[in-house]
């Protein structure tokens, strides 16, 4: 790897997965510790002025964007300002910015999978913030790769998977939508995609733009929950054996979550040669880490 890589967010689940995968190929990252109150425009300015990496991978807000149950508008606004400044700094220093985004930029009204050509119409505050961040990055930093991911699953105890498994330990009804669709994406798979993109950028391939990636085989939260519970029994006895179906419209997050979150991944395949992997094969390693560390 000729390029110097800076990773913001090396302490979260996706950052850790990226560091692990990089180490297997002798690819290292400068992963600075964030200030006590998180990265802001001033601290990012000092950081990039001092280190001048070739590539910045911004996973600083991964948990809020992909795992948190909810995020306040104030917190999202602070993150927007920070990413806007980061894009300005990358443009000024001629750095490449790799920036994650999400299926949340779409409203879920389509019957088929969303491609990069579809116009985003985000539903909730998180999706709206992500769409504004995308627009800011595109307008400010031409050398960018925006990666929109599907339903990312990681081993964090307070993430989406962790909350589900914690609830399953109590004898209660676990309600999940049976008419909502998306692509589960294990965190190791998301990290693999980021690393694959970086390796090709290291070959001076100017493949800037927006790309979709999500695990192979769209499914429903109900079917995903059944698969997780079935696999988890190998590690831990759970009180809930199977989730209960509920309509998307009856879910408490129906106003925020797209009913159709399926992403088409043809562009990233044709451009980078990155093939979607089956999400089911990633559940075992994910649950193993969850129960070993949790």
UniProtKB/TrEMBL annotation:
Cite a single GO MF annotation: dTDP-4-dehydrorhamnose reductase activity
- What Enzyme Commission number(s) does the record list for this chain? 1.1.1.133
**GO CC annotations on file:** cytosol
UniProt GO BP: dTDP-rhamnose biosynthetic process; O antigen biosynthetic process
Query: Has keyword Plastid?
Result: no
Residue span, RmlD-like substrate binding domain: 3-290
Q: What does this protein do?
A: Catalyzes the reduction of dTDP-6-deoxy-L-lyxo-4-hexulose to yield dTDP-L-rhamnose.
Question: What is the name attached to this protein's record?
Answer: dTDP-4-dehydrorhamnose reductase
């Amino acid at each position: 790897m000729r390029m110097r890589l800076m990773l913001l967010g090396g302490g979260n689940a996706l950052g850790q997965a990226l560091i692990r995968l990089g180490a297997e190929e002798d690819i290292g990252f400068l992963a600075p510790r964030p200030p006590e109150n998180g990265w802001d425009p001033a601290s990012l300015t000092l950081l990039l002025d001092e280190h001048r990496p070739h590539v910045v991978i911004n996973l600083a807000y991964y948990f809020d964007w992909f795992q948190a149950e909810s995020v306040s508008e104030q917190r999202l606004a602070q993150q927007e300002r920070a990413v806007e400044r980061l894009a300005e700094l990358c443009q000024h220093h001629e750095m490449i910015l790799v920036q994650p985004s999400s299926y949340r930029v779409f409203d879920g009204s389509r019957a088929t999978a969303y491609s990069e050509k579809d116009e985003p119409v985000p539903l909730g505050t998180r999706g709206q913030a992500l769409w504004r961040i995308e627009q800011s990055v595109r307008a400010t930093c031409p050398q960018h790769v925006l990666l929109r991911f599907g339903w990312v699953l990681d081993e964090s105890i307070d993430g989406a998977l962790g909350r589900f498994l914690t609830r399953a330990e109590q004898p209660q009804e676990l309600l999940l939508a049976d008419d909502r669709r998306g692509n589960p994406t294990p965190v190791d798979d998301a990290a693999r995609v980021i690393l694959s993109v970086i390796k090709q950028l290291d070959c001076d391939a100017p493949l800037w733009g927006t790309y979709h990636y999500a695990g192979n085989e769209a499914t429903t939260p109900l079917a995903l929950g059944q698969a997780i519970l079935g696999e988890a029994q190998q590690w831990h006895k759970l009180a809930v054996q199977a989730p209960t179906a509920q309509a998307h419209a009856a879910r408490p997050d129906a106003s925020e979550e797209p009913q159709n979150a399926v992403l088409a991944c043809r562009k990233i395949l044709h451009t980078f040669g990155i093939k979607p992997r089956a999400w089911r094969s990633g559940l075992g390693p994910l649950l193993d880490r969850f129960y070993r560390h949790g």
